[in-house]
Structures are given as C-alpha cells and as structure tokens.
Amino acid sequence: MKTIITKSEIETINSGREFSLNIRSGTTVALSGDLGSGKTRFIKGVCDGLGVREHVSSPTFTIVNEYRGSTLKIFHFDFYRINSAAELKEIGFEEYIEGGGVCLIEWADRVQEILPDKRYDIIFKLGNNESERIITIEELKPV
Ligand SMILES: Nc1ncnc2c1ncn2[C@@H]1O[C@H](COP(=O)(O)OP(=O)(O)OP(=O)(O)O)[C@@H](O)[C@H]1O
Ligand SMILES: [Mg+2]
C-alpha cells in the first residue's frame, strides 16, 4: 500500500503517469473517492503514460470511453450512474474485463461485487486545502 499527497492537478496527473508503469494487458484499476477528488485527472496521466493521444474525459453519457495507447487498448468506465451489477452485465462489462484491455473504472466502489479479485484499488480523498489530494494505491491479488 502506498499513499501519495499531491498539491496540484499537475502532480495528480504526474502520479497517474508514474502509476501507468505498473499496467499490463488485462490490468484493472478501480478508482473511488469523493466528487472532484482527482480520479479523472489521475486517469489522464495514466493514459498519457500509455501513449494515448486522444482527449481523455469521463464517459458521462456513454458508459465507457475507448482509447488506443501505443501498445494497449484502454477502456475508461464511470460507474457514477450505475446502480447494480445487473446493469453492468447488460453492457457486457465482463467481456471488457476478460478481453485483455486495460480497464480504468471511476466510482468502482459503487458495484464492488463485479470487480475482478486481481486489481489495483486507488482511493482519492480531499486534503486539507483546495489543492491537496490524498491518493492511496493498493495492489490486490487473489490468494
Ligand atoms: N491536487 C489535485 N489533484 C487533482 N485535481 C485537483 C487537485 N487540486 C485541485 N484539483 C481540481 O479538482 C478537480 C478534480 O477533478 P476530477 O474530474 O479529476 O475529479 P473526479 O474525482 O474525477 O470527479 P468526479 O467524481 O466528478 O468524477 C479539478 O477541477 C482539478 O483542477
Ligand atoms: Mg471523474
């Protein structure tokens, strides 16, 4: 488990870029935490690190955005409006997870039960002032 405190949006983007070095084909990253706590900014950095040149933003009206990195395909989900695992089954979420792409999931804790056991959990918290964020990264592995 690793905790990072960032003091600006740029530092959060840079943390994401650094974290992207851990990502391989099939990696799932579950991001959770308060509104405006930096999940999308962090993902921007991750995508940049993976060689994505397209615009990265939360898939608000669709459930998933797809980007092409230099070697990997990236799926960016936002579960904010998802209320049940059944809704995710409908969009074929499991196929994304098993398909070898990289899955980056905002508000992942809304539907915990559908997440793979092997994943990274990243928790975002607002810090002591407007521009501080506390980011905790944990690698989960099935026993
Ligand atoms: N240290 C920081 N790291 C990241 N963002 C910061 C930081 N300080 C201030 N900000 C601001 O906080 C906001 C973070 O927005 P972002 O969309 O990344 O959050 P989010 O967690 O994805 O929100 P949502 O829950 O709405 O999806 C931005 O407006 C950004 O400028
Ligand atoms: Mg977001």
Tell me roughly what share of residues is in helical segments.
10-25%
What small molecules does this complex bind?
A: adenosine-5'-triphosphate, magnesium ion
CATH architecture group name: 3-Layer(aba) Sandwich
Largest sheet: 7 strands, mixed
In the CATH hierarchy, what is the class? Answer: Alpha Beta
| Helix count from the secondary structure assignment | 4
Assign the structural class, choosing from mainly alpha, mainly beta, alpha/beta, alpha+beta, or little secondary structure. alpha/beta
If you consult CATH, what is the topology? Rossmann fold
Shape: globular
Portion of residues in beta strands equals 25-35%
SSE string, helices as H and strands as E:
EHEHEEHHEEE
Number of strands: 7
Model regions low in confidence, pLDDT < 50 over at least 5 residues = none
- Give the domain tally: 1
- Output the strand order for the largest sheet: 1-7-6-2-5-4-3
| Mean pLDDT over the residues | 95
The termini sit apart by: 17 Å
Report the C-alpha radius of gyration, rounded.
14 Å
Overview of the structural elements:
The chain is of the alpha/beta class. The chain has a single domain (2-140), classed as P-loop containing nucleotide triphosphate hydrolases (Rossmann fold, 3-Layer(aba) Sandwich), CATH 3.40.50.300. 24% of the residues lie in helices and 30% in strands. The protein has four helices and seven strands. Strands 1-7-6-2-5-4-3 form a seven-stranded mixed β-sheet. Helix 1 packs across helix 2 (39-49). The radius of gyration is 14 Å and the shape is globular. The relative contact order is 0.25. The mean pLDDT is 95. Magnesium ion binds at residues 39-40, 58, 106.
